[in-house]
Amino acid sequence: MNELEKLFIETLTSQIRALDQFGTWAKKSDEEILSEKYVKTKEQLKNVPIIADIDEMQIKDIRLIFQSIALAFELKLGIMCSVVMEMSHEGFGRAVVLAEKIVVTNKFFKDAHRYSFRTYDDLIKEGGKMLKEAIEIYETYKK
Length: 143
Hints:
By secondary structure, the protein is α+β, with helices and mostly antiparallel strands.
């Protein structure tokens, strides 16, 4: 796990644990929590309908991913970020991370209720990749 992947996972798990009002996640490892929230096997995905409404908890879980990118970006570069996310009840939407006036992360959704990763390692790699790209975009356009 590289530095950016580690930073992403640390920020994501710290945010999830901070929202755990009743200690539901207290006895679980970071990997167990993240796998439960974000990892779905092919078999599990087969049980998710292609067209369906997304519930508020799923929207919040997706938002946490982008808030983690923003927080990790802030910790790495010292530049404040904002997350803007719009999602319809059908799972169509967009998530954007802004650093100053620069869009550093931009993701469109057409079936957000199916948004997941196949493995825990895929989650780590994707988070690290999004963070790396956000930093590169900022540094390119800040010049």
